[in-house]
Amino acid sequence: MRFTIADLKKGEKGIITDSSSEDIPLKLLEMGCLPGNEVHLLQLAPFSDPMYLNVNDSFLAIRKETASLIVIEKIDE
Amino acid sequence: MSKQLNVALIGNPNTGKTSVFNALTGLNQKVGNYPGITVDKKQGICELSRGVKAHVLDLPGTYSLNASSLDENVVIELLLNKNDKDYPDVAIIVSDVENLKRNLLLFTQIKDLKIPTILVINMSDLMNRKGISLDIGLLEAKLHTKIALVSTRKNRGIDELKQLIENYKTISTEPCLDTSTIDATYFQSLQKAFPNQDVYKLWLVITQDANFGKITRQELDISKFKTKSNQELKRLQQKEAIKRYQFINAILKEGQTIDRSKATGLRSKLDRLLIHKVWGYVIFFLILLTIFQAIYDWATFPMDLIDTTFASLAEWVKNTFPGGGMLTDLVAEGIVSGIGGIVIFIPQIAFLFLFISILEESGYMSRVVFLMDRVMRRFGLSGKSLVPLISGTACAIPAVMATRNIENWKERLITILVVPFTTCSARLPVYLIIIALVIPEGSIIGLSYQALTLMALYLVGFGMAIFSAYILDRILKTKHKTFFVVEMPNYKLPLLKNVIITVIEKTKTFVFEAGKIILAISIILWVMASFGPGDKFKNAESYVETTATQTTYERNDQIAAFKLEHSYIGIVGKTIEPLIKPLGYDWKVGIGLVASFAAREVFVGTLATIYSVGSASEGENIETIKTKMANETYADGTKVFTLASGISLLLFYAFAMQCMSTLAIVKRETKSWKWPILQLIGMTAIAYICALIAFQFLK
User: Which residue segments constitute the domains of chain B, with CATH numbers given?
Assistant: First the structure.
């Protein structure tokens, strides 16, 4: 099953495997949303949108819509 | 005179770049505009040793050399144009110690342009506390640069930085990495097509054109060279980012150690409270209340002071140059009161920016954006629309300018279009006098009807903003994709110096931007009110009857009122009377409406003249206008100001676009007359219809 950042629950982590979708803003890639980097979902706004992440040492918030384009592999702890 | 040294400050947002700029230049700085666009251009002079001066340009914050907003585009345009008079002799990349990795991405891009580059690592005082240690020697060698460890908070490292700037010629211009390896054949063909150009520069021009739009001051034409689709280009850019991070990670592995156990949990503790599903909203609401309290309560003291000062100044001009005639009148009534009408808003604007800059500097504003984005999106707005909507309660002009950081054009446009519905402070004097006139005194559960009406007007304004955003979201079709990335910066105590400089700069921008229009219209209105065709205007004295009981003051007031009726503005008021009659207004109110185009609060002053209370003493003024207005009747004896016409007038002021300054700013920000004209027609139509319904229904 395809797993994306949008499927993460609060506090969970994952490793990005694919962020090549054309609809992902370049800025997000430059902030470190690149394959191999770890994503940590820190908090969610009401209705789980936007999502507050830590990736590549950057703290950022993105909309669920965008988050669902970034494919990850979940890390079980 | 030696040639001046050009320094450009470049860096990610939230790295303290502006603090470094302030530390280098002190108050020796000014804000202008880049030609043709409204991005602030901040520049200053930095004194180096032996009388050498550096011209420092604080470029807008950017994450990379691939622009996604107007602000970021400025950076790229400058760096791609060697002929620009501001083209830097030396670039300073400002990074903060905690986000070194991400900041180095931009650094390596600038290095690839072969500009001598100094790396400033700011907030270095936090290194110990965050458990970060750096091998500066190693980093300098691997990145081919000089590094300055700076703490603007503790005021450390600035002198060392100045020395580095002075010796910029010793800094290597060797690039950090070779971008062309991401697609060797493509880059070779690119180089072949333009043998005299730097290949990385060519690559930037191409991607810039594809992603953001044509560079306006472009010196080379690459339009004939196009071998890749936008999708392919984007894939290459992703490859470029990966390649850069590989390089950066390899260096940081050696040059940086982070002891994660030392990291303090301030961020997560504060986040848990400030973006909590309940408490987050409660806290935000309380902060909003404080801001409104400041704007509407604390600001009244300086505003009253300004009001009386300008009134006595106008009086002084009249008394000092009694023989000046027309010119004296122009200065006293046109210019002095025009300037007074601008200056009066300074306390509110300053308070507003004081709060906004504290909230932004502290890192809190991003949390509000995070909290509100989902709610706002339902109405076609963005979480980032919130700051403009709050600013709109003081004045729509800074509010429209505050929309610049909304990346999504459609969301930005909708925000600009609906912001003028929020109740700006210029509406307040109008509301107060009409409410006092038509809303009965008395109260319900301890709240007076009048206060409730005022509150309802605020809600109506905000509600109309949200409602029209919702409608516009359905109507407007744009091909722009949603785009929303908010950095959640670290919490920090705002630096007083930064806050004060922001407040001064923003207030200055307001005074000069809005000021020149308000002043111009004040003068036009003065001319229209001071001249009139025909004998009735010229010899008003002989038309106004003298009665025995009248004092000289009363007679003069009556003459003034008679003159106004037959002046050009009076004629305009009479001409539009048939149009505004169905709303319950007579031609006198019509004059007030026309005059309001300078600024809404002019309404009260204009009515004062029309109802001939011009020379009544200060303080009694409002009471006197009120009484006169209350007694105003039509020829058949019915009152002009009733509950119906009052509510109708309130609604008209709540919705109508009556502010030329705002229209001018909207034109500048949207770069077309289409949107301000749409705004003028749309808002005024809504106002007219609502006022019409209210009057006809309540009559």
Answer: 5-170 (3.40.50.300), 181-240 (no CATH)
- The 10s digit of each residue's pLDDT in B337-347 is 777 777 887 88
Neighbours of B172 (CB within 10 A): 15
Size of interface A-B (CB pairs under 8 A): 108
- Is the link from the previous residue into B322 a cis peptide, with omega within 30 of 0? no
Burial, B497: exposed, middle or buried (Cβ in 10 Å; 0-12, 13-18, 19+)?
A: middle
When scoring B485, B486, B488, B492 by the number of chain A Cβ atoms within 10 A, the one with the most, hence best to mutate, is B485
Q: Which amino acid belongs to residue B600? A: R
Least Cα distance to B229 among B210, B202, B204 occurs for B210
Higher pLDDT pick, B321 / B356: B356
Residue whose entry in the numeric block shows the structure tokens 């307001």: B510
- Report whether A11 contacts A54 (CB < 8 A): no
Residue contact A63–B242, C-beta within 8 A: no
Q: Give which of B557, B664, B566 is closest to B621, Cα–Cα.
A: B557
ipTM attached to this prediction:
0.94
| pLDDT range class, residue A15, cuts 50, 70, 90 | very high
E strands present in B344-431 = none
Q: What is the pLDDT of residue A32?
A: 87
Residues of chain A by 3-state class (helix, strand, coil), percent to 5: 20, 40, 45
CA distance to A52, B105, B277, B483, B531, per residue, from B486 (Å)? 9, 18, 19, 10, 56
Range with the poorest average pLDDT among B434-438, B441-445, B618-622:
B618-622
Q: Please provide residue B460's backbone torsions phi and psi, each rounded to the nearest 5 degrees.
A: -60, -40
C-beta atoms of B488 and A23 within 8 A = no
**Segment B523-536, tens digit of pLDDT:** 887 888 888 887 77
Name the residue range of residue A16's domain.
5-75
More confident of the two residues B164 and B428: B164
Of A22, A29, A59, the CB nearest to B488: A59
pTM of the model: 0.81
Distance CA A52, CA A59 (A): 7
How many C-beta atoms surround the C-beta of residue B264 within 10 A?
Answer: 11
Buried b (16+ CB within 10 A) or exposed e, B337-348: bbbbbbbbbbbb
Total number of domains constituting chain A: 1
**How many Å apart are CA B185 and CA B86, to the nearest integer?**
34
Q: Does B576 touch chain A (CB under 8 A)?
A: no
B620 is written with which tokens?
């009694």
Q: Do A20 and B271 touch (CB under 8 A)?
A: no
CATH of the domain at A37: 2.30.30.90
- The DSSP letter of residue B43 is E
Residue A10 contacts B where some CB pair is shorter than 8 Å: no
Contact at CB, A57 and B481, closer than 8 angstroms:
no
Binned at pLDDT 50, 70 and 90, residue B222 comes out as low
Count CB atoms within 10 A of the CB of residue B285: 10
Q: Do A43 and B275 touch (CB under 8 A)?
A: yes
SS3 at position A2? coil
Distance CA B399, CA B388 (A): 4
Cross-chain CB nearest to A58 (options B241, B374, B487):
B487
Chain A segment 18-77 residues within 8 A of B by beta carbon are 19-20, 22-23, 25-32, 34-35, 42-43, 45-47, 49-50, 52, 56-63, 65-66
CB B566 within 8 A of CB B528: no
DSSP B82-140: TTSTT--SEEEEEEEGGGHHHHHHHHHHHHHTT--EEEEEE-GGGHHHHTEEE-HHHHH
Residue B58, SS3 per DSSP: strand
Cβ A59 vs Cβ B487: under 8 Å = yes
